[in-house]
Amino acid sequence: MVDVVVAGGGPVGMFLATELRLAGVEVVVLERSVDPNPHSRAFRLQPRTLDVLDSRGLLDRFRADHLDWPSAHFAGLRPLLDLGRTGGEHPHSLLIPQAHTERILEERAAALGADIRRGHELVGLRQDDAAATARVRLVGGEHAGGEYEISARYLVGCDGGRSAVRRLAEIGFPGTGGRVSALLGDVTLDDPDKLPSGIPGTLRTPAGLLMAVALEPGITRVLTTEFGRDLPDPETPMTLDELRDSVRRVTGEDVTMREPRWLSRFGDATCLADHYRDHRVLLAGDAAHVHFPIGAQGLNLGLQDAVNLGWKLAGEVRGWAPRTLLDSYDRERRPVARAVLRETRAQLALMNPDESINPLRELFGELLALDEVNAYLAALVSGVDVRYVFEDAEDGSLAGGYAPACAIMSAAGATRPAELLRTGRGVALLPEDSADLAELRAGWGDRVDMVGATVKGREGAAALLLRPDGYVAWSAASGLADDAVDGLRRSLTTWCGAPSEGPR
Ligand SMILES: Cc1cc2nc3c(=O)[nH]c(=O)nc-3n(C[C@H](O)[C@H](O)[C@H](O)COP(=O)(O)OP(=O)(O)OC[C@H]3O[C@@H](n4cnc5c(N)ncnc54)[C@H](O)[C@@H]3O)c2cc1C
């Protein structure tokens, strides 16, 4: 019996494992693939994900050798979205192949002590009041085909869009799709100039869409999207001829391509799990939501699921979580995914090559030139618009939003919220002269770092309680008056549980 089994060691599973280990929770990661995936679907991490990585001290590792990109596109339209308008500390995205993201997260999970089992596929699942039990089949190696069972207090399905956990737990996955057929190839082009390249570099013709991006010298990602065309049976391997034919249909060009490094097909399935939790089984990442990969959001959404879930699950396992804490994961994250699904459907509709869409694109292009619209959509695709709804938040409070960009002066010197969050614990920033600091430390100091500090550069934030995921649980515009301390105590109890009963 272990604390948590994470089924699926993709980026979301590995990140969740790091979050659980930070909180001292025992975690086993079951990953079907024997070797790390060398191919990258995603290439872009968004501003809110960069905030989260910064809050765990990982940003420099992600940044090394990778470029920031200040813009994003909406439906391939011009003008581009200006991420500089998103505010915050990281108003840009980071161009990094998913394989690098996965490697960094796996190394970190292993370094923190996660038990990572590659070549272990979850093939069965049952649960009762005491545990969730996975049946695991060994893939590859001398014991290939062998099976064993492992029980855990909780099991999280991070096993991708075709999630076995979701199917075995009988969690519905309703949605739409089947209208689009997309083909991807990482190939060598004899004449790269024949295809429009760059970022976003999307060509829209009456027959479909084409994107070509140089990944590295000699390797170009070619991606076609055709509407109203069925995808072949997924079991049929994709061929280079298929991609060549699709490029010819979309562009009218015969493009010579060879040495495919990776070929893949996908459609526009856009689905959301009916619920993210079924007793001891939870879902995160693509297992919980899938959409057409437009706007570089799926991986980002999943990493933010992981940072939302990790500390709540840890609180449940370690016994301090209030009764409603774990269910707040579904309550907070499903609406965020629903909004992304709607927005990616909207982008895909705008990219439809049918000429009846052209006036809509023209009009949308004009709207994008308006500062307010551009800023609204930039916040939407980059995830910085996320604000959770907390019932007990007072008017004007920052509660529900992400930690504000501000400077913090404490006895230990100048710092930032992101630096104080590195331990994965909650953080309370309270005026140094607060009479209640000692009592609050005695009550919640085992779960929350109580820091006597002055917050500078952000109005309305003289005192703050940050959850471990970086979202503001409570704020006070000025010092800690009596009613403010009462509000803080209530918020601490809501998010961090009852105060300890140790000596005061
Ligand atoms: C062409 C394309 C481009 C994209 N670009 C972007 C982008 O720029 N930005 C972005 O944010 N998103 C992008 N995405 C989406 C992104 O790739 C996914 O959202 C992301 O991979 C989801 O991560 P995950 O960990 O939830 O699932 P996955 O990456 O699918 O990982 C699931 C893991 O579970 C394992 N597994 C599956 N079944 C089992 C089992 N039964 N037992 C054990 N292990 C199992 C798999 O081997 C895999 O390692 C793109 C997607 C595509 C197709």
TrEMBL record:
Transmembrane segments: none annotated. Residues 2-343 form the FAD-binding domain. The keyword Transmembrane helix does not apply. It comes from Actinomadura harenae. The lineage of its organism: Bacteria, Bacillati, Actinomycetota, Actinomycetes, Streptosporangiales. InterPro entries: FAD-bd (IPR002938), FAD/NAD-bd_sf (IPR036188), RIFMO-like (IPR050641). Signal peptide: none annotated. It holds the Pfam family FAD_binding_3. One of its GO terms (molecular function) is oxidoreductase activity, acting on paired donors, with incorporation or reduction of molecular oxygen, NAD(P)H as one donor, and incorporation of one atom of oxygen. PANTHER family: BINDING MONOOXYGENASE, PUTATIVE (JCVI)-RELATED (PTHR43004:SF19), TRK SYSTEM POTASSIUM UPTAKE PROTEIN (PTHR43004). Its cofactor is FAD. Keywords: FAD, Flavoprotein. This is FAD-binding domain-containing protein.
